[in-house]
Amino acid sequence: MASRDHYEPRRNGTSPTQTASDMHIDNEEKLRYELAKTVTLTPELYEKLFISPKTQVAGSLRTTFGNPTPVGVLGFSVSVLPLACAFMGWRGSGGLAVATTGATIWFGGILLFLAGIGEFLLGNNFPMIVFLAYGAHLMTFATTFIPWFNAIGFFNPNGSGIGSPGTANQTSVFLSSFAFYLIAMGILSFLFLLGSLRVNGVFVLIFLVVTIGFGLGAGAFFHLGKGNVALGNKLATGTGACFFAASVLGFYFLLALIIAIMELPIPDPPVFDLSTVIKPKSRAILKEE
């Protein structure tokens, strides 16, 4: 995330008409001063534009490229919403969201990959990890149900190892095996939940419901593999509800980003910034000393 200090104008009463030598500032201070002449957003507004605690990454890439955070947020929200509705079976939907595989790949996978690379270039470590990880997950989920990958067809009852997605092909072996992957994603999401405690309240809620959703999803696949269809379907519905909540929260955060970026004359939706509430370890150590 871009440091607020990086964009704040000097407040020592220096006139913009003074020369650099008169102001006695170094190159970094010059950069700050030049940015201050063109950037009007307040420090509080900048807190909404990124999902990483403030960093001190050097360089001018932040002034060269656009902010990748909204791209990652919209990619996640758009791809997860139909997936969640399919898991809940709304309006006759279902089939593990195979109908929206294209959206899962392009919005969920490609856009999250691009956002992760963008965060990497800006030096934002935490959102880089999150976007790349969930991009890989959505690509994994989508490609699992593409016949060419043969992930489901391999478990055909006749042992042929070929086939297309369908209920008949989703044997207990496949379901139980895939459930362990969802457990791994649940563990990863819990780690992201811990990291989000220094981001904002919206992301804490997103990672919380996503962690619960992966746990319910793993339970659903295990029970469906054992033939407990009723309980498995209930757990799958719970999975869909969790990811639906995550998608809605993502759209809410995207709204806050768009309002901040475009400086729309409407109230800013609160995102409950936590970066100044939970102090970083280095500051805590210095305070004790």
TrEMBL record:
CC annotations in GO: plasma membrane
Main location: membrane
Keyword Membrane: yes
Transmembrane segments: 71-90, 96-117, 129-153, 173-195, 202-224, 236-261
KW Signal (keyword) present: no
Skewed-composition ranges (Basic and acidic residues): 1-11
Highest taxon of source: Eukaryota
Keyword list, A-Z: Membrane, Transmembrane, Transmembrane helix
InterPro entries: AceTr, Gpr1/Fun34/SatP-like
GO molecular function annotation: acetate transmembrane transporter activity
Pfam families with a match to the protein in the record: Gpr1_Fun34_YaaH
Compositional bias annotation for Polar residues: 12-21
Membrane topology classification: Multi-pass membrane protein
Region of interest: Disordered: 1-23
Compartments, record wording: Membrane
Family: Belongs to the acetate uptake transporter (AceTr) (TC 2.A.96) family.
Protein name as annotated: GPR1/FUN34/YaaH-class plasma membrane protein
Taxonomic lineage from the root: Eukaryota, Fungi, Dikarya, Ascomycota, Pezizomycotina
